[in-house]
Amino acid sequence: MVKGKTAKRSFFKTLMIIINFFSVISLLLSYAAGYISPAKFWIFAFFGIAYPVFLLLNIFFVLFWILLLKKYFLLSLVTILIGYDQMQSLVPFRFTGERNLPSGAMKVLTFNVHSLYGMTNHDYNPHTPSKVMDFIASEKPDILCIQEFYAVGQDYQKILEHVTSKIKIDHYFFHNYFDVTDMKKIDALAIFSKYPIVRTGSVTFMDRNTMAIFTDIIVNSDTFRVFNLHLESIRFGDEDYSFYSHLTIPNGENVKITKGSMKIFGKLKKAFILRAEQVDIMKEQIRKSPYPVIVCGDFNDTPFSYTYHILEKGLNDSYRKAGEGLFGSTYAGKFPSYRIDYILFDDHFSAFNYIRYNTDLSDHFPVAVYLKPVK
What we know:
The protein is an alpha+beta fold. The protein is built from eleven helices and twelve strands. Strand 1, helix 6 and strand 2 form a beta-alpha-beta unit. Helix 1 packs antiparallel against helix 3 and helix 9 packs parallel to helix 10. About 3% of the residues have low confidence.
């Protein structure tokens, strides 16, 4: 009887060591996702998107082995510490720093307004556009970047005059995702600024309906460039959301799991690869900027991705520099929430008071931060 119990304990210990080993390998592969382009090896991107799961699993093993007084806890602990910098994208660790807002700081806000539909296309409310404008007006941003800015029915000039009057911002630049010949339609990226705009431009990504725009802005004789990005979406449709709902809702109807999973897998893979190509183009555009840069927008990718790592390299993440709390998710849709909307900036600026707004005006949460040029 004693031998049987000993054998079971030995088997359980061996099994846990094996699972621990694979969890460590998975966590290391998730670190690699930020450095290896999905256009070359796409499999790493899937480990990257699952980083929080692998991190929690390794934290579990650290605690598990410590409770059993086994040195195996060092395996997961060392692996976690290797990725300490990555953890700061999940929860910022700041032990010092200015919390009071200094004079002269400008408020930068970015918001994917989901074509002003609200949370979902099916829940369109004719009052949503007005509510979005009311929200922006109440927050009084100095620089505003909008993705999926959509309006139809009036001459676009009148629409923009109405918007600028509502939010009390005089200067703007917008560029449609597609060539639009109808003067009564806007479907665009837009940058609004309380400061003079002296130059504008756009960056297109092949024939995709994703792009970037930029404006050169002057503040107190200081010129800097603001980029507004919207990178490749996963493009989930109603069938994909329905499939996911059946997987997550208890007692849901039976679905063809293999077929549904492969369809979602294929869309994720395609989006990973396309974003890798787009982000390489954008990094070169940022590098060539003659002025200090602020990069805002919907990256459609997590802080553990190649997209984020390439864009953030040489820049600062406002959430990491001035944010608080765990995860900081900015996507409000049905799929697991991640932080996919960002405000990055170079060393020309300091960041204060990062905010993620909990609204139901879009399938994204708006985010803002106060930036002050470093003298």
